[in-house]
Structure to design on (258 residues):
């Protein structure tokens, strides 16, 4: 094993509370100079804010240590010379798309419609506007900042962007280009950022979005029993390479399996 990919919510913290032992575990990788990245499907926080959040939990990081769907989408749009977009992401992450021309009029021409998790901001009006933009621009790309089905909040499970994207795919007869988990391309982007290290390991709490998806991208995967994990996950026919009660046990597992 040469490098590690850390999921955030449910692995390092849950809501505004750190997972016990998470800081010591992550900082162990820093002190041992083991290459790593933080992977997250969040579209509600820019990288600088994620650095600040981890620091509050005693975890050191830098903006360049994060791969987020907005970062991956930005790179994909630039690579494909798509400069005029309709953007539906939380206000806090709009800065990642500051160099693009943003369109809000459903009757205007766009090259792409970019969608993240709007949480409680979702309304019928917003969804219908997105639908009309796609119908009125048959050449426009539908860019999904992740296809996560749901996540755990302090008040319980909450729908993520995945179900909304599926609705747009069905209604507009369009296939989304996904720039977040569980798309293989997202994990391949992480591999590129790690300079094509071999035997990279992903650690996460989502049996499908973290474990199955990373394995399908050619990585090893460790399931933690925190966050959204339930014992029923282990009966879905997906076999993690390892199962840990929490990330606190990761350094010991790593040393044992080197």
């Amino acid at each position: 094993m040469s490098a590690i990919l850390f999921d955030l919510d449910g692995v390092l913290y849950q809501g505004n509370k750190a997972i016990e032992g998470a800081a010591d575990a992550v900082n162990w990788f820093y002190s041992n100079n083991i290459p790593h990245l933080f992977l997250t499907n969040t579209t509600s926080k820019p990288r600088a804010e994620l650095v600040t959040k981890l620091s509050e939990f005693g975890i050191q990081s830098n903006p360049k240590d994060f791969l987020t769907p907005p970062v991956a989408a930005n790179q994909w749009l630039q690579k494909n010379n798509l400069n005029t977009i309709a953007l539906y992401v939380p206000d806090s992450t709009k800065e990642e798309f500051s160099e693009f021309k943003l369109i809000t009029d459903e009757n205007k021409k766009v090259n792409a419609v970019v969608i993240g998790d709007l949480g409680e901001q979702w309304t019928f009006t917003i969804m219908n506007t997105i639908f009309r933009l796609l119908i009125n621009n048959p050449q426009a790309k539908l860019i999904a900042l992740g296809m996560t089905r749901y996540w755990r909040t302090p008040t319980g499970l909450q729908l993520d962007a995945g179900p909304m994207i599926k609705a747009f795919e069905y209604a507009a007869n369009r296939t989304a280009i996904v720039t977040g988990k569980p798309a293989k391309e997202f994990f391949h982007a992480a591999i590129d950022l790690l300079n094509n290290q071999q035997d990279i390991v992903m650690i996460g709490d989502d049996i499908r979005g973290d474990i199955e998806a990373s394995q399908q991208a050619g990585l090893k995967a460790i399931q933690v029993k925190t966050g959204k994990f339930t014992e029923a996950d282990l009966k879905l026919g997906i076999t993690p390479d390892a199962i840990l009660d929490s990330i606190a046990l990761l350094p010991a597992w790593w040393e044992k399996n080197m």
Notes: The helical segments are 22-31, 47-56, 69-79, 124-136, 162-172, 184-193, 207-216, 250-257. The radius of gyration is 18 Å. The mean pLDDT is 93.
